[in-house]
Write a structure and sequence with these properties.
Layout (H helix, E strand, L loop, with lengths): L8 H10 L1 H9 L15 E2 L10 E13 L8 E13 H8 L6 H10 L1 E7 L11 H14 L11 H9 L8 E2 L3 H4 L4 E2 L5 E3 L7 E3 L17 H25 L9 E6 L11 H20 L4 E6 L3 H10 L13 E4 L2 H8 L15 E7 L5 E7 L19 H11 L8 H6 L5 E3 L6 H11 L2
Parallel strand pairs: 2-9, 9-10
Antiparallel strand pairs: 1-11, 2-3, 3-4, 3-14, 5-6, 7-8, 10-13, 11-12, 12-13
Bound molecules: zinc ion.
Zinc ion binds next to loops.
């Protein structure tokens, strides 16, 4: 909450940066001089795609916000999460490309229709007979996954996919009772499926989604952006796996390569639910093995980053010393290695691989044909791909098609983001009405694709 006079702030900050203490700290801090050093790796032209482009793209893009509510308690808040899923018809994109620009108003209509949402208790919002907002939050998170039915014919809830991933979680380090922060219960146990209870005498309800541990980030006062953000990223990523598992049930995996999946953000999970990353990775490898067996091709999945250190670094790296030119030519790419990341982007001397516990894919820089800079990641779809050691792109057979797709979908006017990819192609977007016959829509799309 800003208080009076806070926005006199800028100058105060500058004064702070000039103080002796700050200066002294900076003399001890490592400095990287970007202008003087040549890049440790050089961009190369992306291989051209021999395989046909998929005809459809499923884009999954979540957002979160927190709103103040009046319930008689001070500072009561509710988190509002939405996940928009859109099916883009690339043939429609082709004809659209001929009559740009697209109408953003038309897009917003489709975007709303494609959105599923959830409200979660924030601070000072206690539902039912719960004893704290944190417990209310935990139960609502469970309900989001329990009630998350994506298709009216395949009634399998999102919870089913989440619990399949939970089953892959190692049981070597049982977590503390989820009531620990409320009642100081010190029991440690592995969270089971569905509804269970703590082993202590109180036998309180424990939900399978408690294994996400996001309630540990939940604050009794103030904002809960961190806890809501964790649930958001879990939801987006579980939805991706859920759709693939639904294809598997519907015997559609043999056509899955005709669809590409675009995810908002890196192919990773951060914070308390980071353990899901390894589970998602092994589930993706299991599903991809089936896809490969029947088609000889890999799944097409790409995560696109809008901001952060990698986006800033790519921008900096692309500046060349000659004014008016850039280091990356159109269609140039760079696959990032562990050494490069630790040396140039996130400084570290650790032996442990960058993102080992959080990433289920690896990052690359790509400059599209139109000149947009994209920071994206592609998944590890077999054990060999699961490395940051080498920059050998031939290990990732889906990479050329991924680049060709980015060329097609990203215009230079809308760089670096997923939502604009979708909005730019508004008229080609078919909202996926989750809860309607999504699988039927997707199956139809897959059958149409040739
Ligand atoms: Zn307990």
């Amino acid at each position: 909450m800003p208080y009076e006079g806070e926005f006199a702030g800028y100058r105060a900050l500058q004064r702070l940066a000039d103080t002796e203490r700050v200066k002294q700290l900076l003399t001890r801090a490592r400095v990287h001089a970007p202008a003087s050093s040549e890049p440790a790796a050089l961009p190369a032209q992306a291989p051209t795609a021999d395989d046909a482009l998929p005809q459809f793209v499923v884009a999954i893009d979540g957002s979160q916000s927190e709103v103040d509510v009046r319930n008689g308690y001070p500072g009561a808040k509710v988190g509002y999460l939405t996940v928009a899923s859109v099916l883009l018809d690339l043939e429609a994109v082709n004809s659209l490309d001929e009559r740009r620009p697209a109408d953003p108003v038309e897009f917003r209509k489709t975007e709303q229709a494609a959105t599923i949402d959830a409200a979660l208790p924030g601070s000072n919002v206690v539902t039912r007979t719960h004893t704290s907002a944190r417990v209310a939050f935990r139960e609502e998170v469970y309900d989001v996954f329990h009630n998350g039915v994506v298709d009216s014919q395949d009634l399998t809830p999102l919870l089913d996919t989440y619990e399949a991933l939970l089953a892959l979680k190692p049981r070597t380090r049982p977590q503390v009772c989820p009531y620990n922060l409320d009642t100081a219960c010190e029991e440690h146990f592995a969270i089971g499926h569905g509804l269970s209870s703590c082993a202590c005498t109180l036998k309180r309800s424990v939900w399978s989604t408690d294994a996400l541990r996001s309630h540990e980030a939940f604050r009794d006062t103030g904002t809960n952006g961190e806890a809501f953000g964790e649930i958001m990223q879990v939801w987006e990523r579980v939805l991706l796996i859920h759709l693939l598992r639904a294809f598997e049930r519907g015997d559609l995996l043999g056509s899955a390569h005709r669809l590409a999946f675009f995810l908002d953000g890196p192919l990773a999970l951060f914070g308390h639910p980071a353990w899901l990353s390894a589970a998602i990775s092994s589930e993706l490898q299991r599903l991809n093995a089936k896809v490969r067996e029947s088609t000889g091709r890999d799944l097409l999945i790409v995560g696109v980053e809008k901001s952060g250190a990698f986006v800033a670094h790519f921008e900096e790296l692309d500046k060349s010393e000659t004014a008016g030119t850039t280091r990356f030519a159109p269609r140039d790419y760079m696959l990032l290695t562990d050494d490069y990341i630790k040396e140039r982007i996130i400084f570290s001397t650790s032996e442990k691989r960058y993102g080992l516990d959080t990433y289920f894919g690896r990052k690359f820089f790509y400059k599209t044909r139109s000149g947009a800079r994209i920071v994206a990641s592609i998944p590890f779809l077999d054990p060999k791909q699961d490395t940051l050691e080498t920059a050998d792109i031939s290990m990732y057979p889906a990479f050329p098609v991924t680049c060709a797709l980015l060329d097609k979908l990203v215009s230079s006017r809308f760089p670096n983001a997923l939502a604009p990819i979708v909005s730019a192609h508004a008229q080609a977007a078919i909202p996926l009405h989750l809860g309607a016959k999504v699988l039927e829509q997707l199956a139809k799309a897959l059958m149409l694709a040739t």
